[in-house]
């Protein structure tokens, strides 16, 4: 009897110790297969001169790809510049609009649920469909945007031709798509703010605008940090929008002069147009590091939001 | 008692996880076999090949075979093919490949079924010599059966030319532009009296492709070396088109983009370089313009732009059946049907003398005798050697010409940047 109990006890002991690992193991297994292994393999490929179609002909070249990429490739830096520009043009308006929209939805209004549900609609629409429609809206000759602008006497803008104009058009797509998503996150936490705080502020004479900036925004700090980091990582791998903004045979170059080629699009071009698998792997890893850096910067910036 | 419940729960959960992992692993190996035991073949295409009716006919004759078509845009399609070949899975049983990309794929012949080993060598005489050679790998493997060839002409809008006071009759129009210089001069005449918002030509890149298609040497020499900056024919053609753009003859539209498609429907231009396959495009993009179009001879005579091949990737499950289907689809009888339904010019010269083909007229294009026009063009065609990355070089030329059309650069600066971009393709 005594022996059996000890065995059961021991089993229980191991059960308690090991089961948690069993429970989380699927994540690690899946991460290992779909996350870690590709990452390490990409690292290995990035050290090779390798054609996408010809794995046998691969040749180990050390850090030559990185040397070329970081020090001798103006197109890569052009793409990085576009990525950062689009990051600024999308992330900041996205967060600000989302705050405003959430604030509006947080009031008492008729059909509130309908409006709230509507916010997520742009996000669940197919990126390809959205982009193709936006590309039409921003068309040079028959686009709706130019048509509206023409009422105000603004000339015909060739949206795809210019750097600023093409970035504006692409940013519009991204902001349209993601504002609602972030607004819902903000809305959820706004509802957790006790109304007594606003009541106290009202008694102190704070106007609605002051209440928004002094109470709501500081209390949403964790959500704003989350949204900024999510938006940042998303924008660092922006691909579909610039790719589909100018479809046709030259889609991968992001415009005639690469004026809206993002880093992810450059990776795609090197990998799948020029079949330079090693080089595009190097871009992938550099982009991953850059994403961490930029996400870190945006984290540090948003962390400065404070209650005064 | 409690430990026991937990144990059961643990076991249950572990089982669930195991199932999940197994399911994930299994889903990667879905089978392509139809439940009814039919052999399933897939066909990867881009643009219009006009095969839908033919495939019905083939399936009726082969009840054990079921064929599905999937169509993507030109560049997406070729990128997909490359990716599927690289990863060793996902390619269709038959993949179409355009002239611009065939040289690139024939560099890795081991990814494709060598059609010579499945009877292709017996069929060789069907095709134009150069068409057969263009898809022949260095080691003698044949990776694709030719479908159509480009054969050049100019499609033009009768109504718009008339409105600008130019002749509209196709003989007179052909006589108007024996050379490209004459073509651009006629454009200047047109532009002086053109209806509002109409330009002479759709865009520089299409015209550029036609001019380059007539040169004896294109982007590459026979040893696969890029000669873009040393081939005088290219630079001369480039300068000519830049001149036309600067004379405001171009609507500035890049081909196979949505804005270009809209341009057809909105009558933004009066002429477009017209390889045979372009006719079906125009018909699709602007069905309302039926009867307003006509077809005239191309300046400078002859020339080729485009034309495709059907390849059989080795990774397919039923390569034997796929090769048989590819041979059937590209046989002269079927090419003749595709010509009359979609206007794709056959790559099998035996048809060029066929009265059915030679007398074919196209009602959409004001009953133009396109049969005679395009077969004449094909007979005059001097084959041009296509190097490994011809498609990508063509894309770079399109971008460079766009920079000029968008006013971002002048002709010389755009050319200089182009030469640098093209040089990067060599490595």
Walkthrough of the structure:
The complex is a heterodimer of chains A (308) and B (427). Chain A is mostly helical and 308 residues long. Helices cover 73% and strands 4% of the residues of chain A. Chain A has a two-stranded antiparallel sheet with strand order 1-2. In chain A, a hairpin with a 2-residue loop joins strand 1 (48-51) and strand 2 (54-60). By secondary structure, chain B is of the alpha/beta class. In chain B, the strands form 3 sheets. Chain B has a 5-stranded mixed sheet. In chain B, helix 2 links the parallel strand 1 (39-46) and strand 2 (65-72). The longest helix of chain B has 26 residues, at 2-27. The termini of chain B are far apart. Classes of the chains: A mainly alpha (308), B alpha/beta (427). The interface between A and B is large, with 39 and 47 residues.
List keywords for this structure.
heterodimer, A: 308 residues, mainly alpha, two-stranded antiparallel ribbon, B: 427 residues, alpha/beta, 5-stranded mixed sheet, 4-stranded mixed sheet, 49% helix, disordered N terminus
